[in-house]
Amino acid sequence: MSENRIVRMAEIEVDPQHLETYRALLAEEIAASVAVEEGVLSLNAVAIKGNPSRIRILEVYASQEAYEAHLRAPHFLKYKTGTAGMVTSLTLLEADPIMMCSKP
Amino acid sequence: MSENRIVRMAEIEVDPQHLETYRALLAEEIAASVAVEEGVLSLNAVAIKGNPSRIRILEVYASQEAYEAHLRAPHFLKYKTGTAGMVTSLTLLEADPIMMCSKP
User: Fold this and answer.
1) In terms of pTM, does the model score above 0.90?
2) Domain at B57, CATH number
């Protein structure tokens, strides 16, 4: 894999009142991003068991350019504006891959 | 994908003195697990930029049985015993997938 990859971990807290709507918007955004954007390599979103309003997303982009293009994509902007009032905390951690393996 | 999947997020702090050795053992363990174990679907390990002794691993197993088999696998036991003195903090968060998409 290329060393140009951009990897991020998003740590998100969602207002529990809006959790179901938030999850639907996030799922739609992830599916569209990976399907449509060549440079979005993977988006894996999970909720912490027992505390489902705590969301983590591991994001992998092919390059800085791919990441910036993603931020301008209509499906991302729909998610971002649609969920702005639902997110009570957002921490974006930049990361360096150590080893990323998935079944083919 | 099956709803039997087991998803975990490991949050690990490593003694900076042993970080390079730790990373090598972790990388070896991840490669072996995904290559050899049918039920290990993905292991994605990253280090937080600017704080490389903070490690996150997103782990996906096909089932509870696959996860338990992984804990008994020789490559996992080698990693676990080999790094025991290097890990200063370990938090295992069980998680529920929301949406997990990767490029084929």
Assistant:
1) yes
2) 3.30.70.100
Domain that holds residue A68: 16-95
Is the pLDDT at B1 greater than 80? The verdict is no
Q: Tell me how close the Cα of B103 comes to any Cα of chain A, in angstroms.
A: 5
Condensed to tens digits (0 to 9), the pLDDT of residues A46-73 reads 999 999 999 999 999 999 999 999 999 9
Burial B83-95 (b: 16+ CB within 10 A, else e): beebbeeeeebeb
Residue B104 lies in a domain: no
User: Do the Cβ atoms of A44 and A95 come closer than 8 Å?
Assistant: no
Q: Is residue A8 part of a domain?
A: no
Look at A49 and B98 and tell me if their CB atoms are within 8 Å. Answer: no
B48:A94 CB<8 A = yes
- Whether A30 maps to a domain, the answer reads yes
| Cβ–Cβ under 8 Å, residues A70 and A76 | yes
CB atoms closer than 10 angstroms to residue B37? 19
Question: Which residues is A61 bridged to in the sheet?
Answer: A6, A40
